Amino acid sequence: MTLVAPRETVADFDPEVMRLFDQYVHGGLDRRGFLGRASRYAAAAGTTAAGLLAALSPSFAAAQRVASSDPRIKTERIEIASPAGHGKINALVARPAHAAGALPVVLVIHENRGLNPHIEDIARRLAVDNFIAVAPDLLTTAGGCPGDEDKAREAFAKIDQVKACEDFAAAANHARGIAGGSGKLGATGFCYGGGVVNMLATRIPELICGAPYYGPAPTLDQVTKIKAELQIVFAATDQRINAMWPPYEAALKAAGVKFEAHFYPGTQHGFNNDTTPRFDDAQAKVAWGRTLALFNRTLRG
Question: CB–CB of 271/280 below 8 Å?
Answer without folding.
Answer: yes
